[in-house]
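Hello,

Our lab assistant flagged a job as stuck in the queue for most of the afternoon. It eventually completed. Since we weren't sure the result was trustworthy after the delay, we are filing this so someone can double-check. Below is the sequence as submitted and the structure that was eventually returned. Let us know if re-running is recommended.
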Amino acid sequence: MTKNAAQHTEIEKRSLDAFIKLMRASESLTGRTSRIMALSNLTVSQFGVLDVLFHKGSLCQRDIAKKILKSTGNITMVIDNLEKRGLVHRERDSDDRRYITIHLTDDGMLLITKVFPSVLGVIVDAMSILEPVEQAELGRLCRMLGLNEREVPLP
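-- returned structure --
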């Protein structure tokens, strides 16, 4: 049987309230940035791949998946679609054929350098309601949550 709002502990209420606010803020910002990406026919995941390759250089699929928090199965499909558009290309390692490096193509570089500044502008605008010290604190707190590896028991 589930609890009604009056039966929740203060810790549960506070945790749920913070979680809901975090998710709403994330969804709001993602919605604003994804509209810019969609103008270039990019999904959030496709943009994430191009962004990682642009800022970090060529990487293997596993490392890309880890950077953008996607499963390796999902990242394969995302990269397949980017490759079909000529935005990335795969290169198999000559010594270990299982190891595949993903590279930005010239077209991929052109697209990400066109789209990234607009996405960044939306992010900067959204964050501008926070003072610099608040932005730093938000980043610190989100990092703490993201790095929390405690195993949560399943019901």
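-- support follow-up --
The delay was a queue issue, not a problem with the job. The result is valid. The chain has a mean pLDDT of 90. The beta strands are 59-60, 88-92, 100-104.
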